[in-house]
Amino acid sequence: MYRLVREAESERIISSPREYQTELFERAKQRNIIAVLDTGTGKTLIAALLLRYTVEKELEDRSAGKPPRISFFLVDKVALVHQQYEVLKANLDHPVQRFHGDLRKTPFTRDFWQQKAEQSMVIVCTAEILLSSLHHSFIKMERINLLIFDEAHHTKKNHPYARIIKDFYASLEQVEQRRPRILGMTASPVDAKTDVTLAAAQLEGLLHSQIATVGDISVFAKASINRPIEDFIEYGLPPASFETPLWQKLYVLVGHNEAFRRLFTYSRSCTAELGRWCADRVWKLCLTEQEAQKVEAKTERNFTSSKAQFPIAALDAERVAVREAYKMVANYSLPSPERNPFHLSTKVEALIGALQKHLNPVKDKCIVFVEQRLTAMLLTDLLRQQSLNLSEIRAGMLLGVGSDSGDSVMTLKEQFMTMHQFRNGDLNCIFATSVGEEGIDIPDCNVIIRFDLCKTMIQYIQSRGRARRKDSKFFHMVEFTNNAQLQSVFENEDSEARLRKFYNTLSEDRLLTSNDYNIDYFLSQEKSYRTYTVPSTGAKLTYKVSLSILANFVSTLPRPLDIVYTPDYIVRNVGREFECEVILPDTSPIKSAIGRRATNKQVAKCAAAFEMCLQLKKKKYLDDYLQSTFTKKLPSMRNAHLAISSKKKSEYPMRTKPEIWDIRGIPERLFVTVLKMTSPEALGRPSRPLAILTRYPLPQIAKFPLFFGHQRTSDVECVPLPCAFEIALEEVEQINQFTLKIFDDVFSKEYRSEPEKMPYFLAPLIHTHDFDFSGIAGDTRTVIDWECLTMIRNAARYYELGNQPDEPLKEQFVIDPHDGSRKFYTVRHRPDLKPTDLEPPGVPQKRGNKKAIRDVPKDIWNFSISLWSNTRAKLTVRHDLPVIEAEYIPLRRNLLDELDKPEDVQLKCYLVFETLKLSTLPVDVVVMAYNLSAIIYRLEASVIVMEACKSLSLSIRPDLALEAMTKDSENTEEHSEEQANVQRGMGNNYERLEFLGDAFLKMSTTIALFSQIPDSNEFQYHVDRMLLICNKNLFNNALELKLEESVRTRGFNRRIWYPDGLELLKGKQNTSRLGKKGRGRGVHILGDKSIADVCEALIGASYLTTYDQGNFDLAIQAVTKFVNHKNHKMMKYEDYYAAYEVPEWQSAEPTAVQRELAKQIEKKLGYKFTHPRLLRSAFMHPSYGTIYERIPNYQRLEFLGDALLDMASINYLFHRYPNADPQWLTEHKMAMVSNQFLGCLCVSLGLQTHMLSMSLGLQKEITDYVAAIDEARKAAEEEAESANLGRASYARNFWVGIQKPPKALPDIVESYVGALFVDSKFDYGEVQRFFDMHVRPYFEDMHIYDTFANRHPVTFLANMLQLHFHCADWRLMIQEIAVEGAPIGHAQVLCGVMIHGEVREHATAPSGRYAKIIAAKKIMRTLESMSLEEYKETYGCKCSPEEARASDPLAHATAV
Q1: How large is the average pLDDT for residues 1005-1017?
Q2: 20 to 30 Å CA-CA from 437: which of 216, 613, 959, 1207?
């Protein structure tokens, strides 16, 4: 296309100006002028001369260091940009560039224009481009040295030409050299039927220019510029319009369809204007298959937007009718046209005759001007019909580029191709609409025919100017004896004559100020229109431009791909004035604004747009250049949520010992904490409680279970006694020796005796496990068995075995000094056995020194001795030693783990005491002491988290605190994944509490924002809330609080539970990584999200701590601590309502309608609203302008109600299903808070009938949904009745399979709950009552929603394998795959689908969640086509349906 334009406009004309052109150029150098010259007389040459002069001056200015300035050649049409660009490029020796709005990839920004100012001298562009850039202050008027307005007669009212002058040129300082020079160019200053003198004066005043022209038209003759000979072509009187048979048949089918209305009107008028044949031919040209499809789509749009409600069958019938109409036209046999009155009108016949007479097909070219595009199409098509034998007339058409009417249009390329063919002679007759009259340079022709007469003088001048060759002819087609048409032609000629006369009266030195219509006159007419200038940039907001700036802003909002967002304007009458409200789409941060009142609707719309732009600028959604920042702001909000990843991990310090252990030194008083069993019989031997003695009191911790195998279990209670007791140094030595004795004899750890370094001490108690220690309030030393302590202190290290072993050897504790893993309880003396007798089979052998026993006899002597073979060989077997029956004490690694089963070993054994020793510890003490490793581990973990809670000033229940800070696997937060590196025996992890805490966090921050920021909108609320609750914020605040140090990530470890800070004399030293940081500290790897999750879990724990009291204060304090933000400083629940100021619109006197609404809602739902206007707000859809009742729409209340319902639902599930895992809870919560259910609830409560909306399409959607949901409920009731259950017992999940409701319905439920909450002064009890009465009945049995929850691929696979294939032996296994060079904690995850022991499918992904989803989808594609028999055979599955039903699918895999 550009090549064609270049070829047409590349002639160099600047070197040969005519005298009058030079004269006008000289005047343009001195002052602003409007060059008024006929079409084809060389106005563009004058512009080129002035541009060359201006550019040369600019080069001098730039070399002098002045800021660069640009010249602008402004046009009104896109086609003219290319045309004038090529002309200027060919005639100027300086850089020229072109721009227009169709160049969508061009970023018109400040940097863009700065770059162009440095690179270019001249810009050719549409005026709209420059106007927009001036408003945005991308370019300033003082940076422009020349403004050329092509077709300057358009400078009036709000045309971009006029706005450039009014908004920017006029406001420039009154310094002549700083204002750009202006050159206007036009064939006539008048483009309408008006007073010539008045119109010319107004144009001069507005453009701040003087009209300059050639008064004597004889000048043109001297310059070889030809004026055509004018004449008339007369045609006979046309008949009256009528309907052809085709028209009548089509009208029966689609005559009532609005999409066809214009075509029917044109076809009927065509019978008189063009003839019967053309009236039918237009259907062939317009109703093609492609156009029929467009009409069908338009029919559907018209149908859905209709105010009347029609059944869907009516739409189907309309579609069918359109298709039938297309088929009728396609099959219609239209005869070839003939030149007779039956086919063609007298006007068309006259046209053909004139073309044959005046158009020499070899050397002549003709333009026929018509008014309508369809006429141009039909006449072009007609002249190409072979039956007319007009092959010498090579017809084409020239139409406009675009239209909203739906008529046929041409592209720019098609326009230039037509002109190229016309220039080359491929076409010699073109039918043109008004696009051919003005601006576009059509090659010289010598015949112009006005098929439709000129309506204005400028049309007359411009169309006549297209005839430029010598002896050209200009014809007007007039109806015979139609004086009105003749008079119209003569009036245009007279108007031109008056204009010429006006030109001759102009003096050359006339001052512009003598004009009554100067620029101040035009500005005074707009003095009531506000403007706003951005101080920092100079960007200017006006009434007119606010419409386009707002439209551009809306275009940046997030939207579905097939939707185009536009602002909606609602205008209403207020007396004799108009008031407008603009409403933006739901995704806009600000939804509506009301403008100032105006005297007409258009200005009222501008006022509303102006007001909205001001609000957007104030909230910084428009930047200082009045461009949308929304596209930048939205991702920043998203990033707040996604800033951290569950896969991003780092190494952090970890407390392995509580801070209370850091207090050392010789104690002067000690606190007692009793360690006792609730079911001591589970130990299998008599035992007694022990005490742990500390320098400071231990907190109360929750009891916890220990597991001893064979279904034997007991809870451990740690009972801190309230008072300390004074202790002497000698007594300290006693308890220290007892403590060291426990570690030495029971755990084979010998420490140096340094009581000042002991973090705690152990002591035996005199009471049994069932003693009520909580009743001890006095001297707590009395519970300690001091006699036992004295005995142990005074006794030798070991008991010696006497000659009479019977009594002393019953129930004694035996240790092996050479092998710490071998411990025994004695049973009795066995005089019937001797040392050389064989040991019973199955007795555990020494584990570490197998070489020592490799070749020795399996007798009692060798079993009892664990020495190395060389040392053993030096011993002589003593046959005199008594044989003692004993019970081997197996090593129990983790008593906290229910699944850690004890080894199935032979406990009965026989011993001789050559190297074995008898401990002085009482057996009942030893039995209890064997539990110390698990007890101390759990005690220390509990104390660590309680210390953390204390540092947070949160008095959380101990069991909940530990649960909230327990992470028992590397991927605890990944609910759907196979848990990696599970740490068993840690108790409950934080998942359930995090699920609960997340909901409370959302609710509490929502209430805080709602109460403190009343003027915000739903979008901004979401942004502000995200900044509070996002994982990144929680994570950062947790690090500030050093919370990560106290998170429990390590299960029981038999090497690290011992006291630290002591010198180990014998036994294995702890060399693990956990102890490398020094006393009480280790390291662990935590994901960023895990740390954030712990914050939410602690909020959940705080909520549960005071749940029974119905008090939220502790949870609110936790939220305040972890969000650490000015928007949530509340410390108790009452602070929320204290921060809320009742807005004036809420408390204002309600109208009768609003009071009636409150009465109806009270009757339906039982709550009486104190503020009916607040209730009214809950039912106001965003499309219903606030302008009517001065009440905001429901979106703020919906935001609040959503969080309240979410909390109520999660709280219900959490307590109703205490053993459900978080994954199950999450899945089933989806049903309770889904739009599908809330839509159903809305209809069930009848709330939709109260909604106020201005969206017609929405009302139809609601009507359809209500019918569908009512039908589904009725079917469910009938089904229950047929099952003899009664209609009231219908299945409450009837709504699951129904179409999704319009979003407005669930929004209403949420907004009502929000209004209920606010009206009750933030009484959460009212929300709970609403939930219990109206929501809970649907969810008494959550299992009926398993299908709703199980739409996730992994869960779907689980159900397919269990329920369809009856398979119980399958599992999703995951494993991290190391990636070389990856940071710590980053890896790919491999997921394999195991079926009966073999991997049947696999997938890899960055996270286990996605790896499992991909693997599940892949295996399901294989399984979908399998029958049950094929599955059993393929995978060797022999599982029975009973086994499959008994298996838990969630044990294999769960969904997210």
Answers
A1: 88
A2: 216
